[in-house]
Amino acid sequence: MGGEKVKLKVRLDHQVEFGEHVAILGSAEELGTWKKTVMMDWTENGWVCDLELESNEEPIEYKFVIIGKDKKNLTWEIGDNRIFKLEETVTSSAFVDQWQGKDVERKSNWDTSGLQELVLKLVKGDQSARNWWRKLEVVRELVVENSEGGNRLEALTYSAIYLKWINTGQIPCFEDGGHRRPNRHAEISRLIFRELERIACRKDTAPQEILLIRKIHPCLPSFKAEFTASVPLTRIRDIAHRNDIPHDLKQEIKHNIQNKLHRNAGPEDLVATEAMLERITQTPGEYSEAFVEQFKIFHQELKDFFNAGSLEEQLESISDSLDGSSSALSSFLESKKVLDNMGVKINISEGEWISVLMKTILSLNGLRKEIVKGLESGLRNDAPDAAIAMRQKANKLLNASEAVGGAGRLAENVEHKNASSWSDPIGALVIGIHQVGLSGWKPEECRAIGNELLAWQERGLLETDGSEDGKRIWGLRLKATLDRAKRLTEEYSEALLQIFPRNVQILGKAFGIPYNSMRTYAEAEIRAGVIFQVSKLSTLLLKAVRNILGSQGWDILVPGEAFGTLIQVENIVSGSVASSVTGPVILVVNKADGDEEVTAAGSNIAGVILMQELPHLSHLGVRARQEKVVFVTCEDDDKVADIKRMEGKFVRLEALSAGVNLTPALTEHGNGNIPLENQSTPVPSVFGNAKENSTSSLTVKTANSNQVGSTVGVIPLADAYVQSSGAKATACGRLASLAAASNRVRNDQGVPASFHVPAGAIIPFGTMETALEKSRLMETYKSLVERIETAEINGELDELCTELQGIISSLNPPKEIPESLAKLFPDNARLMVRSSANVEDLAGMSAAGLYESIPNVSLSNLVTFGHAVGRVWGSLYTRRAVLSRRAAGVPQKEAAMAVLVQEMISPDLSFVLHTLSPTDKNHNLVEAEIASGLGETLASGTRGTPWRLSSGKFDGVVCTLAFANFSEELVVHGGGPADGHVIRLTVDYSKKPLTIDPVFRQQLGRRLGAVGFFLEQKFGCAQDVEGCLVGKDIFIVQTRPQPQ
């Protein structure tokens, strides 16, 4: 610390309420001389600030304060002023910084009331496990006993929380009269680590379990050879018998550290050792230099045992295991040293700072890659102890290197200093995402996102991209990937929030943990990793991209204007809105899976604001359009916060082509607020009476009672008609005849409208009833159908639907059905088994996604085929289907199900065409939504956006509206079994032609526009058309009237 100035880094581990900040005040001028607060910055390591102080012998007094949300109120920490002398500093470990234990033994209290079996066993185990090694044994038993069963995630969760609280002293360790040297702790740790490694290497291990394993690693003691020796940590014994220190100090070290450590080692021993080290170094020269040096070495050994060493210390401990020819370690240490030294330099340019920072995080990334490469092979059953110990060190190092700052520090630099270059922020984001992948969280997804960002960075900003504006295309492409990166961080946070809060509350209550520690646990875990910095950086870049695109963060699925009280719900389900709420409601929905029906939450829903992306023709989007519910999504964090502040107010939601506005609306109360229990504003007329609405627009056609059960065999697709096969199958039959004619059709620009239709046949209405008769279940079936007509929504309806589905799904079609189908399809053809109900794909009732479609089945496996047909029949009586028919005024007994069997297509791309723009009702455009692989990605509520193209019907102009960012594509493996399942593959859009090839994008857009316009003319009204691209061929699999 020589020189006139001393660089001081201050760090405080303390959680505050959202919106509050921590500052420091002190006697030195650099600390505001008790008048002006010095703000501290939040990082993943806690609250930090860097200071430059005059080097002198005067002690500095200071205190920490919490600045309130109003930026005015100060809350001072209690107790005397803290005192600091520059020449008397001792570096404490992060382990000790987080210590929250007590100086004296306190009586433990355990509350086991209401605990379930697994957590009850842990708490009862702790009651008889006073010391650390016994507590570790409790964890070992919990992990081993649940490593194979369905309780594995729960066991790992409670183990992580329990060990964390032990290591921070909140669950105390005491002596119990026994005598176990630290080698016992090391041996138990090795057993736990072995089991965790086996779990991590299993194919069925969930990402959440990998996260928890990573949380457990730092809480285990080291089991290096020196700690598993019969008498470990002997240096402290030699120190306690030195002749160059006072007798009283020798006795204190012997009894309080040496004997305690060798009887019942625990985390509290590292705390005591660091307190002793601070004391003996307080006054230089007071004690023998040789004694102090040996005590410092012992302190380092003890930190190593508790896995509490600094990043550099841990790197040193594994250096022998790294590739000797690699320069990764030396490169990182050298870069980090340069970066640390820059803190004491004056007048550093922004470019110089970023250059050094980028070099450091690049070298860190290379080092982590090398460490992970050594771990990829997994743990052999016969792995020697030294190899296992090295794996433990390497895993612990991965955790520690996450906390080095990396991308987060660059994000803060860009945010605070307004760096204009995109290169460094994107580069930092790529590295940050790579770090997340190296940490075990969705590594394939991280790899794909990183590849995309690097590809867009390399392509640069072009003047034009094909025939479109290059700046806009660059922004749209980058936005898609940044949205995907943001989604990655949200899924991580959601995983931790699903894992921790409830379990922390349960375990915390049992152990009497302070409320604030429980309340902030999950937030602290999220903020402690690089994922938090990735989230900040991706959010920062997304805002910049939206500015480039002029985007407000809204997407309109159903345009219009709606009024209602703003109510926030988690998802759209029955009961989301209390029955006492009788006025119109606008829902703010956190999540959707795409299969919901808006009116399921209540007939008074006037509008929906969904906080995630959603394909326009997802099942939910189609139903919202049919139900005439204004529907928008919002992905801008600032706007989401503004929306939530309006909860409980009566608002106006306006979603028009010019944009989306949400504003308070005046009511008879005059202040924009309306008590929910007093709402009397009538529901907008779009709801009306379900039965009245249905009679004017919906006619359900089915075979009459004399015909049901009399239909036999199968019907070729070309012969399908509504009364026997349903509207969907009939439309597919007509598509087949139109396909032949389409070969001769071109639009005004000469673009062909040609398409193909998969071969198919129908298992007609009545076949299900025939199977019921043969199984002697018809009377039971009729009775259940009659009962669901009036069944209560809560409870009774669920039971009846489950019973009905169970009966029908167990049915098999008559044996002549597969025999007839076998004559129509090639041998070993893979088939799609689809619904074609008489209450589906009608002008007034699309019923999109209500009924099952089973992919990838074959007639060569009659059991699988029969099960698929049974599932489609049974889907007629899902809860959602029953409620949908109720809302439409269709009696349950009138519903019937035919089955459409078509040859399975393995597409490169799947699409949905809207021949009338769903956003602005533009009749001159065909809009396409496109996804890679099978079309279920579009129809379901998979998080993400599709490619969106618009094509002019009369001028052929193609405009790119959005690039795709779905994380996965669904494919059928040609060599795999035809078992009704599909494969999920991670998508890298930097390799997808539709993203990177503007010529292909224009050509496909024009072809889809021509096909959509042709079908609209032939069917006489606007259509929602589903299809796919196989090679260069377009296939159309379905069309239905577009909800208006």
Share of β-strand residues? 15-25%
Mean pLDDT: 82
Structural class: alpha+beta
The tally of beta strands, per DSSP, is 30
Order of adjacent strands in the largest pleated sheet: 11-15-14-13-12-16-17
Please bin the fraction of helical residues.
40-55%
Structural domain tally? 6
Q: Please, how many helices? A: 35
InterPro entries: ATP_grasp_subdomain_1, Carb-bd-like_fold, CBM20, GWD1_pHisD, Ig-like_fold, PPDK_AMP/ATP-bd
GO molecular function, one term: ATP binding
Domain CBM20: 1-101
Cofactor: Mg(2+)
Brief digest:
The protein is α+β, with helices and mostly antiparallel strands and about 1050 residues long. It is built from 35 helices and 30 strands.
Features:
1044 residues, alpha+beta, Immunoglobulin-like, 6 domains, seven-stranded mixed beta sheet, six-stranded antiparallel beta sheet, 35 helices, kinase activity, ATP-binding
